TrEMBL record:
Homodimer. Its cofactor is pyridoxal 5'-phosphate. This is Kynureninase. Pathway: Cofactor biosynthesis; NAD(+) biosynthesis; quinolinate from L-kynurenine: step 2/3; Amino-acid degradation; L-kynurenine degradation; L-alanine and anthranilate from L-kynurenine: step 1/1. The modification N6-(pyridoxal phosphate)lysine is found at residue 232. The lineage of its organism: Eukaryota, Fungi, Dikarya, Basidiomycota, Agaricomycotina. It is an enzyme of class 3 (hydrolase). It comes from Leucocoprinus leucothites. Keywords: Cytoplasm, Hydrolase, Pyridine nucleotide biosynthesis, Pyridoxal phosphate. It catalyses: L-kynurenine + H2O = anthranilate + L-alanine + H(+); 3-hydroxy-L-kynurenine + H2O = 3-hydroxyanthranilate + L-alanine + H(+). It comes from the Eukaryota.
């Protein structure tokens, strides 16, 4: 193992039991068991420091901070400190990456450039139960081009009785329907089940037909574009600034359609010329000047990630930690193997509480989360279990109607967090 044998827990600020409402915990000042990094990562102390520094400089320098910065971080060039780190995170060349706006806004910008439907090729291939904001974007883009979402959005569902997509089914769909598919849009890790999709294979097969918490190689995989948020495993804070990638092969083809002054070349940006002269590549898609406070928060977190060795050692520890949580969960008396769910909880089956894991068991096919399907399905007890976990100081998140997600983040979670979560899950189920 690397330096991540011991996580960087002391570099993050974790809420206490009292602060999250864990009323069943006698020690209200003790740290809670935070397993919700897949929804909102914890704040790093480095981010807190950098944001406070920018607040102080705003107060003492005002507008002068854009060019004359006492800590050598002039606001007009702040993203220059972020793009090399972000490029390393996603496996791209620095000029293929920019930090701007929010995920869905960036998705619309990229889809507007790359979704070019024709009467024969107009479908968007995606996974069923994609993140709702993504689904809304897909639908609105399809409608804007005059197509019926029911026909144009091709959603792949798991096979009956299964919870995740099979790789062969994705590739088969691309093979059989590729001539009608205009765009292939998959999340890296499926937010509901935690399945990690084989992005390199999907990209390769999509190219043959239709010309972001894990290590990525977007450039080498020949991905056309990608967008991602930073407030989860990159710990940039609620609503944190997002990232965007466009492969350099498109630089001379796809130019910004919706220009903004921050996409104008820096040398003449503040001369305010009447003609837009975009930065070459994806950085030319920038529009408004970004919030320096959001940039500072992200920079702090990325600097912690760099201290940890970036994505590959982080992923190594993530696999170990998630596997440890899985083993503990499978040792619970309330655990039901996925293959036995239909038999035990089928028609007129058991009404006793339990759970199964719908995230793939193979580490290469999942991210850092485990999605627990609370049984029996449709009984309404999931919310009761989730509420009990909060009272015990275990913070995960729920997805209606029956799923609780627990995500051990490799930068700050520990084996003790995993043990606590399973112990209190058993108590919550026992109380039912």
């Amino acid at each position: 193992m690397t330096s991540l044998t011991i996580p960087l827990s002391n570099q993050f600020i974790r809420p206490t039991n009292g602060q999250v409402g864990a009323n069943l915990q006698p020690d209200q000042d003790a740290q809670c068991t935070y397993l919700c990094g897949n929804s909102l990562g914890l704040m790093s102390k480095r981010s807190q420091t950098l944001v406070q520094e920018e607040l102080d400089i705003w107060g003492t320098r005002g507008v002068v901070g854009h060019f004359n910065h006492p800590l050598n971080r002039p606001w007009v060039e702040y993203t220059h400190k972020l793009t090399p780190l972000m490029a390393e995170v996603v496996g791209a060349d620095e000029k293929e990456v920019t930090v701007m706006a929010t995920l869905t806004s960036n998705l619309h910008l990229m889809m507007d450039s790359f979704y070019k439907p024709t009467p024969e090729r107009f479908k968007i291939l995606c996974e069923a139960k994609a993140f709702p904001s993504d689904q809304y974007a897909f639908m609105s883009q399809v409608l804007a081009h005059g197509h019926d979402p029911k026909e144009a959005i091709l959603e792949l569902n798991p096979r009956e009785g299964e919870y995740t997509l099979r790789e062969e089914d994705i590739l088969k769909t691309l093979q059989e329907q590729g001539s009608s598919i205009a765009l292939v849009l998959f999340s890296g890790v499926q937010y509901y089940t935690g399945q990690w999709f084989p992005m390199e294979l999907i990209t390769k097969k999509a190219k043959e037909q239709a010309v972001g918490n894990v290590p990525l190689r977007l450039h080498d995989w020949n991905v056309d574009f990608a967008v991602w948020c930073t407030y989860k495993y990159l710990n940039s804070g609620p609503g944190g600034i997002a990232g965007m990638f466009m492969h350099e092969k498109w630089n001379s083809i796809e130019r910004p359609k919706f220009a903004g002054w921050w996409g104008h070349e820096l040398a003449t940006r503040f001369e305010m010329p009447p003609t837009f002269s975009p930065i070459n590549g994806v950085q030319g898609f920038q529009q408004s000047n970004p919030s320096v406070l959001a940039l500072a928060s992200l920079l702090g977190s990325l600097e912690v990630l760099r201290e940890a060795g970036m994505m590959y050692p982080v992923r190594e520890r993530s696999v170990q930690l998630t596997s440890a949580l899985e083993k503990l969960l499978m040792g619970s008396k309330y655990f039901v193997p996925p293959s036995e769910v239909s038999q035990k909880y089928g028609k007129s089956g058991s009404t006793s509480p339990g759970f199964t894991i719908i995230t793939p068991t193979e580490p290469s096919s999942r991210g850092a989360q485990l999605s627990l399907l609370i049984l029996p399905m449709g009984s309404g007890i999931m919310q009761k279990v989730f509420n009990s976990l909060v009272l015990y100081g275990v913070i995960g998140d729920e997805r209606q109607p029956d799923v609780i997600r627990l995500a051990p983040a490799p930068l700050y979670n520990t084996l003790v967090d995993c043990e606590n979560s399973v112990n209190f899950l058993d108590k919550a189920l026992e109380s039912l």
